Amino acid sequence: EIFSRPTIKELSEYVQKTDEKTYLPTIERVEHQKYYPASSVQKRLHSIHHIDETKMTYNMPMVLSIEGALDIKRLEGALQTIVNRHESLRTSFHMVDDELVQKIDENLICQLQSFDADCNTDVEKAIQSFIRAFELDIAPLCRFGLVHLTESKYLLLIDMHHIISDGVSMGIFMRELRSLYHQIPLEPIEIQYKDYTSWQEKLKRTEFYHKQEEYWMKELAGELPVLHLPTDF
């Protein structure tokens, strides 16, 4: 339909005229539980984590340069507020009855590791010691460090596992850290990631989901063609 109706006007007319309407359940806040379902993406990353020998393929490290006067106590407070604010940063993963689940630590204390560096070699050693494998059953799956270069120059080290974060999340994290450090209040969060994963589980029990499953089972039935992709060399 997108290719046969390539303009917004044509697509809008098609949507308004179609008789078939899809009703998806609304994402709602779930009640407090000991464990929550993991999303399909988290299940994949958890499996890959236990296959990968280094266990660092899905680390998401960042090194940020800070110049000027830095209030370290205020920075620590801003980081703790973000950890308190986002349940994903307090989440660990466990197998319960052969099913992967999330567990949220309600009282996790954020720690800012401190490093002193007088030369490039010291900086490299600090970064190498900071970026290391996470154990997915131990929260938090994020860590923060501060390299003290001079009285007015620092490096902020951030490392998170991809199972609790992604590129969009890091953008939100940096915006909120900047606001909180400058003591700008943030709007409260209505929906957490556990609410989404619970919604996803609920979606799998809907007629809409089963229709999608039936469609693809039919499309992929029988012998599948081999896909030949050109590759270098």
Structure description:
Helices cover 37% and strands 20% of the residues. It has 233 residues and is of the alpha+beta class. The protein has a domain at 59-90 and 105-184: 2-Layer Sandwich (Chloramphenicol Acetyltransferase), CATH 3.30.559.10. It starts with 7 loop residues before the first helix and ends in a 14-residue tail after the last helix. The mean pLDDT is 93.
Question: What order do the helices and strands come in, and which of them pair?
Answer:
Blueprint: H1 8-17, E1 36-37, H2 40-51, E2 59-67, H3 72-85, E3 91-96, E4 99-104, E5 112-116, H4 120-130, E6 142-150, E7 153-161, H5 167-181, H6 193-203, H7 207-219
Parallel strand pairs: 5-6
Antiparallel strand pairs: 1-4, 2-7, 3-4, 6-7
Helix pairs in contact: 3-5
Brief rundown of the structure:
The protein is an alpha+beta fold and 233 residues long. The protein is built from seven helices and seven strands.
Helical run tally: 7
DSSP summary, beta strand count: 7
Task: Characterize the main sheet.
Answer: 4 strands, mixed
Name the beta content range. 15-25%
Mean pLDDT, as a whole number? 93
Low-confidence stretches: none
CATH-defined fold name of the domain at 59-90 and 105-184: Chloramphenicol Acetyltransferase
Biggest sheet strand line-up: 2-7-6-5
Structural category is alpha+beta
Termini gap: 38 Å
**How are helices and strands ordered from N to C?**
HEHEHEEEHEEHHH
CATH superfamily of the domain at 59-90 and 105-184: Chloramphenicol acetyltransferase-like domain
Outline type: globular
